[in-house]
Amino acid sequence: MYYIGILVVGAVIGFTAHEPLSKLFKVQESKQEKAICTYFNCAPNAYSYSYDQKSDLFIVTVDNAEYHVQFSQNQPIQVIYAKELEPLVVDG
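Above: the chain sequence. Below: its structure as tokens.
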């Protein structure tokens, strides 16, 4: 009975602490997001970004435009390269 109580308490603590702890370990991502907001002068929810393994760059979408972006390796994290990608034109 004692072990079941400890298991339940541990599960509750793990469930409630998961989100704050996961944010704590995503420091690099939060600094990249701040650098994007600073460089493109946008709100934190006004863009999306993902990593492109082929080009070893990030793709950032802001204001219906896509950019290849590279971040600095040193602190503070900054956008050091940004090039707008050409939109694809599909003949209909």
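The CA atoms of residues 14 and 22 lie 11 Å apart.
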